[in-house]
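Consider the following input, taken from an annotated entry for Exodeoxyribonuclease 7 large subunit (Ponticoccus litoralis).
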Amino acid sequence: MDLLDDEPGNTPEFTVSELSGAVKRTIEGEFGFVRVRGELGRVMVPRSGHVYLDLKDDRSVISGIVWKGVAARLQMRPEEGMEVIVTGRMTTFPGQSKYQIVIEDMAPAGAGALMAMLEKRKAQLQAEGLFDAARKRPLPYLPEVIGVVTSPSGAVIRDILHRLRDRFPRKVLIWPVAVQGAKCAAEVARGIEGFNRLTPGGALPRPDLLIVARGGGSVEDLWGFNEEIVVRAAAASAIPLISAVGHETDTTLIDYASDRRAPTPSAAAEMAVPVRLELLAATRDFGARMTRAMGHRVEQRGQRLRDLARALPRPMELLDGPRQGLDHLDERLPGALRRAVDRKRLILTEQSGSLRPATLHRAIVAERNRAADRAARLGPALTRLVIARREALARRADRLDLRPLKRDIATGRERLAELTRRLDGAQGARVADLTARVEALDRLRETLGYRATLARGYAVVRGEGQVLTSKAQAEAATALEIEFADGRLKLGGGPARRAAPAAKSRPPEQGSLF
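Applying the prediction step yields:
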């Protein structure tokens, strides 16, 4: 019995990896495509971009993973507590002996879940102040350029252009976007941000007003306008924005963040511009009212002026008194002139009675005597002044001494001689140094020249005017010329000629060194 217990049985043996692989193949083969409904538990998004989550009900939990590429295509963002329906395939993770579902699509489990998620997102954004009335700006009365973010192929843009053309034609820039589906939110947000980045007055003008428009649809069709990225782009827009998404009963989160909400795209066009004919009629009415008001004002002022004129005297009456006074003065003027002449004549007669030639002669003699007396006293006074100034000059000359000046002159002369001697010595040393440098450079030139090499026993071979450096060149030449240190020797030509000794460079003159 003991021997039988030690013998191996018929049960096959598996390695851990083989068993894990078999379990993986079994699960993936049986559950290659599944749809599961449940509540999202833990939701984690690491730096890799993948989404790790738990799908649970009241009794069980299944781990799930959404790869990065699939997560970018999801129409909703997974949030903890949401009830969803996921589609994917079951697999295992052998490293931790666990099974999980690889999610390829995710949708809310009914309209109730969508509305709950919508209310939660609305409360979050409202708490941040994105829906405050203080953030909303008034719309421009008559914008020059209107930017429209919508689909270029739908009936919405045609309705907007038709209403603008009927009311008041304006320039319209269209930013084409997808108005539903996975790309809707990102493209609408980029459209709003793109219009805001345009430069005012540039080649492509920046709009004065934005309209985000889309026709009606279900909650799922309009869901892109409930995304957080769209709401934040609308709230951050520096350009006033009108939201015209869906019909009058449809409400999306962009309606709360925009400056104005229009029930339909056509109503957004009506909000954007006034009616041109109404403006023209109003302008004509204002012009007529202004003309009537001006006429009435002028008439009132004219009547007031006429009333004031009746209270004023006539101009001729104002001049009657001055004219009469002038006549009275004219009658009195001749007699007054005669009396004034008589009075002046009397004064002149009284003054001339005291004037006699003898009196003038006495006055002249007195002035002449006074001048002669002053001339007699002027000479001695000038003499005394000259003598005093000369004595003062003599006193100052006695205080002058030439010996300090002579000492300064002698000291300056000695300094000048010393400086001259130092300058001559420096000049001579400079000339000697430069001469020695020139001679050393000349010796270096002779040493580096090829003639010094010839003196050591070398020779230069030339053929046909060129220096030959190989035996083949020498054999090919018709005549050779060999240069030695003491002259040149021609082979195959005329007599040899002695090379002229190199002229020794003469040192430069002293004046050329400076």
